[in-house]
Every structure is written in C-alpha cells, then in structure tokens.
Design goal:
about 110 residues, mainly alpha, about 70% helix
C-alpha cells in the first residue's frame, strides 16, 4: 500500500493463511506437545477458557506471578518453534502464534 501502510487482513484470511500450511500446523503441534503438561494446561486455561491470571492461579493453587511466568515461558518456546514460518505465511510471529493457539483449542 502507499505510504508504507500494510493492508488489514480479515479473520478468515488469517485463518486460511495457516490452515492450509501443513508444515506450520505440524511444527506448532510438535512444539505444543514438547511443552510440559502444566504449560499446556495453563495455556488452555488462558486462551481456551479465557481465564485471567488471578483465576488461573487460584484454580491451580499457585501465585499469579507463577501462572504468568509459566504462560510466558510456554509462549516464548512456541514462538521460537514458529520462527521461520513468518515468511511462508506473510504473517508476523505474534499473529502466527495467536492463530495457532486458536486452531489447536477449537
């Protein structure tokens, strides 16, 4: 676009950019399986159950800071695994991660 602005993608365009990318889907699934069960559990609570850190901490019997750290470390690990797929989809890593989480928790 003119002026250096990037065009807005629709939700459907985002999803179709990664749904058809078997290599990306497999890379994310493999990376997700490498997370600890606790990391997977907390990611599900945060992104599927849509719980805030206070509720996650209370449910798991941990501090809010511990819940945040576990989720942060899991997201960092997943981002690392998704690096290199940005170019094949044309999406930034944060968007790839968000969409991959959305797909895995459907």
């Amino acid at each position: 676009m003119a002026g250096g602005q990037e065009r807005e993608w629709s939700h459907e365009e985002y999803l179709s950019a990664i749904e058809g990318n078997d290599e990306l889907t497999e890379a994310f699934a493999r990376a997700f399986r490498q997370l600890t069960q606790r990391q997977q559990q907390l990611l599900r609570m945060k992104f599927f159950d849509n719980l805030d850190y206070d509720h996650i901490a209370q449910t798991c019997g941990i501090t809010k800071r511990t819940a945040y750290n576990i989720i942060h470390d899991a997201l960092k690990q997943l981002k690392q695994e998704l690096k290199g797929h940005e170019q094949s989809t044309g999406l930034p890593i944060e968007t790839l991660l968000s969409l991959s989480l959305l797909l895995i928790f459907q």
